[in-house]
Amino acid sequence: MISQLRSIAAIMMIFASALVPSQLAAQTAPGVTLTDKQQKVLDYMLNDWNKPSRITGVELAMGDVGGQYSPDDRYAIGVFLKNNPRLHRTLRTFGWETAILTPNEKLIARIVSRAERENQNPPTREEFARIVEVSGAEVTDALEMLDRFGIMRRDPAVRGLGYRMAEDRYQDWEGAMRITFMNHRVQVEGEKPFEVY
Amino acid sequence: MVLGVTIRSGWASDIRPDAKKLKITYPVVVGNDDVEKGFGGIWGFPTTFLINRKGQIYKKYTGMYPQQEAQLEADIQKLLAERP
Description:
Chain A is mostly helical. Chain A has helices at residues 2-6, 36-49, 58-65, 71-83, 89-94, 97-100, 103-117, 125-132, 136-148, 168-171; strands at 11-16, 152-154, 163-165, 185-186, 194-195. In chain A, helix 7 crosses helix 9 (136-148). Chain A is globular. Helix content of chain B is 36%, strand content 23%.
């Protein structure tokens, strides 16, 4: 490519993000089957994402739809979204991670990724419990879910936490329009809460 | 030559209708993380790079601001005036 560039007097390269609300409707994705109640959550999310700037995640969508949902339900919907980027431009633009993680999981991932970038030890589980203001068991649940999704992985060498980011791209994820581990929840009076990018 | 590079905007099939709608006439390609890293990271949109004859980044402009067009034109003219 460089040799091609040399033959040109001057090249102006413009990096841009051309995101506009997707007009794509929900589609049936092959190979994975969701239960009816999981499908309701998926439909709610896809409909939400058709609205400007919306990126409501699984956890909030389950709450908005109502009913009883387990971590396994969220995992199933998450895997479905991960495997089917054709479902919506929001997935193709921002990635599946931001849509399937809870705010606490994102916060833990943010802190661990930053610590790794700066060659620091991440907080221990006890410190995370204080930082995130949840119980130690909830920190463990969050770490295990991040592990199930392949975002973090167990590593006994990481003192106190026992987990590290699973891939380099999860260490170095920040930048313009990157919201992988970010969370922006909005509540408008009289409306159900939603999330935006 | 002007080349557009999209970042985090979806697939080519997502971008093609946008380019048409915006009446973009220059080539537009889909960038990935490697492209972004290769240019030293993108921290705002649009980010414009002016590349010289040697294929090196001559200048980087982040965002849009008053006088940017005039600045760009002056910089391009300066590069064009340089001997091959």
